[in-house]
Amino acid sequence: MPLADHLRELRNRLAKGVLAILVVTVVAAFYYKDIIDFVTGPVLDSIGCPQSFGQLAKTKDAHCAHLTVNGLLAPFTLALKVALTTGVVLASPVWLYQLWAFVAPGLHRNEKKYAYAFVGFGFPLFLAGGYLAYNVLPTTARFMIDLTPSGAENLLPLDNLLDLSIRMVVVFGLAFEMPLLLIMLNLTGILSGRRMLGWWRGMIVGIAAFAAVATPSPDPGTMLALAAPIWGLFFVAVAFSLFNDRRKRRREEAGPGDDEASELDLTPEDIGEIESVNAGRTLPEQSGTDRVNGYDDVT
User: Biased-composition ranges for Acidic residues (predicted)?
Assistant: First the structure.
């Protein structure tokens, strides 16, 4: 396909993806309050003051927070942010398919197979990480609110709470993709299982450091809630890679099957070496002058 046709196809597929996002965004704008309640509900159940909904709380309890929205345009900006984020997430099957349809014709069969496997396992892993973050957030929020000095009131901006919730879900979800990336590198022959196994000490320390930075609170329980599943997934990836390397070695030692073509030695040779080898060879003498089907013995 010429370059102009490629650019035209890319424009059409981008337009379809953006249109799907806009449609879902418009629909989500009518339900943005329900979406906010769903995202922030577990956190508010853990740290929200009993009288903080609809009126200023009169309690002096430091172990709770009052939800606030600052500014005249803040509610509109908040609704727009929530609706757009929902549109991007819920319309992801459409725009991901458009992206795949644009890239797939240029991939080989094995590359398509690996891509299908990555999507098939990557999406459930991302959901598992997001679900873990959704359940860890209340504990994290409770730990942070407990640090509030006595006699002080904690005012929690709603937009900050939403940003924190979304960031935690995305970070946990992407962290769960790391073992799958290691497996893909092993399947393509870039990284061996033995090398991954040699990294286990550094990976444990690195994952723990990443969990400490990714989680907003210094609570060790929250850090371990993120690090422990990734440690387990890492060792699962190592075990799979070792098994895959062992299977490859057995296949190479067994040689090609009856229905497989053997590999050809296509290494170029010097013409002078070929002539020196053929120099000592002589054509067989003809046993007679008779020809069989029009050909002599040498032919």
Answer: 255-273
The CA distance from 23 to 27, in Å, is 6
What CA–CA distance (Å, rounded) separates 267 from 273? Answer: 14
Where do runs of H (alpha helix) occur along the chain?
Answer: 3-29, 32-47, 74-90, 92-103, 109-145, 158-175, 178-187, 193-198, 200-214, 220-254, 271-279
CA gap 159, 281 in Å, rounded: 87
- Radius of gyration for the alpha carbons in the chain, expressed in angstroms and rounded: 32
d(CA 10, CA 84): 23
Spatial separation of the C-alpha atoms in residues 33 and 53, rounded to whole Å: 14
Q: What is the pTM of this model?
A: 0.67
Chain position carrying tokens 């709603």: 158
Helix (H, G, I), strand (E, B) or coil at 255: coil
